[in-house]
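Pipeline run #58 for the internal structure catalog. This entry was flagged by the ingest filter as a single-chain record with no existing model, so it goes straight to prediction. Upstream metadata was stripped on purpose; only the residue string is passed forward. Reviewer on rotation: M.T. Logging verbosity set to normal.
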Amino acid sequence: MKLKRIIWITIGVALVAAMILKLKSNKDTTQEMVYHYDKEKPIMVGVDTIRIISIDDSSVYTGTFEPNKETKISSEVQGKINSILVDLGNYVSKGQPLIQLDNSLLKLQLQSVEVQIEGLEDDVKRFTILTQADAVQGVQLEKASLGLKSAKVQKATLIEQISKTTIRAPFNGVVTAKLNEEGAFAAPGIPLLQITDISNLRFTVNVPENDLNKFQSGRNYSVSADVFPGTELSGRVAMIGSKANIGNSFPVQLRVANTKNLSIKSGMFGKVNLTSGKGDKGILIPSSAIMESGEKPQVYLVKDGKAMIHDVTISRNLGNQSVVSGGLQEGDVIITSGFINLSSGMNVSIEN
């Protein structure tokens, strides 16, 4: 029994020793397979030599053309629609009749009032003569005069109501929606037609907060419609938004005249092009070369075959490039690619 126990212990110790040897062997094999970076070996990088160049500070913003004026027309009085005098796409002028409502009952009321006025005018004439002759009391003349005034007010009211049964265009424009048909019932607040004025357009762009100072109220800017790319239009800034939208940008609205030879439609896309025209000289580097670690932006300079981190000052961004206002000089060599495993002081090799 004692011998058997010694045999089992010996077997267990042997198995544990075998496992330890196997694990050590696996560890050695794994370490041999792991890549060990040689810090002394130069890293292949792409570079750019700093030059003083003329900076074209131009920006393009995309926006949408909208009508200068657009309204849904409804009636001020109730009545059946006798006729609709225009159709979709028709151009209408201010004051042009668009819809005629039934006004036959109002005209009959007007005739009745006119007859009443004739009788009251006769009464006033008769009571005036009789009052002057002391044949009747003056109060009767006063009652007849007040009745005549009341009837004339009633007549004016009916004439105004009859005039409102003819619905007219409030401004020049195009009929862009027909919302009712002949025989339907019109009432205040129920839209009947939609009129759109596109002789002048509103062009709205959304501008990031950093670029908002490029727009000045009342100033003209170059605008183009995507469907007429070769034609330049003049857009005057009419409104600069005071509240940011969901994308943290601000709406800027320009007024653009819609010339007859273009006929830009509401909803079309366009662009506004901003050019400083200053032709300033400066240093322009790829934004991808800038390291955003720490409080200040940094770039890698190549000095004596080594990468050296260096602080720079960025004044503004132009697309995928940045304008450097401090920290670099003409002739400096900056690293623009090959940042993997790169740190300050490491050896670098420049790509051909």
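catalog note: The mean pLDDT is 84.
catalog note: Helices lie at 2-33, 104-132, 138-163.
status: ready for reviewer M.T.
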